[in-house]
Structure formats: structure tokens, C-alpha cells
Amino acid sequence: MNLITVKNVSKYFLQPTRMQVLNDISFEVEKSKFITITGKSGSGKSTLLYLLSTMDTRFEGSIRINQEEMLGRNNSWLADFRNHHIGFVFQFHYLLPEFTVLRNVMLPALKLRRYPVAEIEHRAMELLQLLGVGEQAHKRASLLSGGQQQRVAIARAMINEPLIIMGDEPTGNLDSYNSAAVFELFRKMSAEKGQTILMVTHDEDIARKSDQTIHLADGKIDEIMVR
Ligand SMILES: Nc1ncnc2c1ncn2[C@@H]1O[C@H](COP(=O)(O)OP(=O)(O)OP(=O)(O)O)[C@@H](O)[C@H]1O
């Protein structure tokens, strides 16, 4: 069954002049797959991911995620959908520097209040341990290295066990060693929890190791590689 179905999606920016950034994009993603989105700078990768993240619903066409159409939904419905189903990891991790690592990971779950605080703390600790930063849990986030902070950001994206994890160049500011390590962690987590990963990347090695690569050129799908 498809988790994501994108059909004939086009996107225009109106400022400074009207420009078509995505042109008739269609593809499907099955559950539990690792998908990469590649293409030259300016080809529309981030714009596409942003639409898939449901933060921007001004597009033509159709985006269905988990059987739900995103077009035409109001903001509060979308925010609720995101909180429950989508986790994000960006190039710059946006942790709250003054908060402890543990608190940073717990925050998205505290917002949803699906579990008691003690249970959220327990799950956050488990994730941090799985990601190899358990010992840092009680430190302030700003004291960790870039690679460690990125692992914390992954734990934060995973705390609500979202169906989909999205990343825009999540390993973009890491060296090749840490970048490969973070990629393997994504893989491991998706295999263990059945999560679907969608990642924008410039890194050819990462793209080659993913299940499916959507390659964009000038806002169009140039090629879809399924491995
Ligand atoms: N908010 C916006 N308003 C107007 N134009 C935009 C906006 N965001 C992006 N664009 C333009 O849309 C095109 C695609 O941008 P996008 O960021 O999606 O590309 P990208 O493939 O992710 O590039 P990069 O690899 O450099 O991040 C670019 O020409 C960009 O200048």
C-alpha cells in the first residue's frame, strides 16, 4: 500500500516574478522505504519536501499521505496531522541550546500528551541510548558536538513514532564519517520501527544506498531510481 501518493503537483512562486518551481510531479512511496530526493541546486528539492511536510498547501495537484488529501486542509488540521505523523530533521538541528538534551527530545511528546511524563522520559532515554548519546542526556544541548547534536535531533524527530521522518540535508553540516554514521542510524531506526524516510541530499553515496531516489531537474522529475 502506498503511504504517499503525489499526483500532478505543480508549484508557483509569485514573488519577485511568477515562476514555476515544480512542474507536474507524480510519484508514489511505499511504507517503510528510504527515499532520497536529489538534483542540482535550485531544482526544487526543498520546495517539494516542504509541500510533502504539509507546511505549504498552496500547490496544484494532489498530495495524499496515509490516505488523507493535504490540499484544502486548514492550518489546525495540518498542524495536528504533522504532530502525529511527521518528524523533521534539518541541516541545522534547531535544538534549544539552554535546555538539556533529554528535555529537547521530550518536548514534542510533552506537546501531544499521549503518555505520562515519566513514560516520555523513559522513551526519550531509550532513544538517546540507541543513538549513542545516552550519556549526554543531562547536559545542556549547546555543549555537544555537531554530530552529537544531530543525533539528538533525530531522537527528537522520532519520539512520537511518526509514520514519516523528513530531512532536508540532515547530514549536510557533518563530516563524511559522521554523515555515514547518521545515515546508518536513520536506516536502523526505519528498519526497527517501520518508519518511512524522505531525505533531500547532495550526497551521492547516501542516495545510492536508499531504496528509491527521485531526481529533479528544473522542477521536473528527471528520473526515479528504484533499487
Ligand atoms: N519562497 C520563495 N519565493 C520565491 N522563490 C523561491 C522561494 N523558495 C525557493 N524559491 C526558488 O525556487 C527554486 C527552487 O528552490 P529550492 O530551494 O526548492 O531548490 P533546491 O533544489 O532545494 O536547492 P538547494 O539545493 O540549493 O537547496 C529556486 O530557483 C529558488 O530561488
Automatic annotation (TrEMBL):
GO MF assignments: ATP binding
Keywords per UniProt: ATP-binding, Nucleotide-binding, Translocase, Transport
Recorded superkingdom: Bacteria
Family assignment from sequence similarity: Belongs to the ABC transporter superfamily.
Boundaries of every ABC transporter domain copy: 4-226
Name listed for the protein in its UniProt record: ABC transporter ATP-binding protein
InterPro entries noted in UniProt: AAA+_ATPase, ABC_transporter-like_ATP-bd, ABC_transporter-like_CS, MacB-like_ATP-bd, P-loop_NTPase
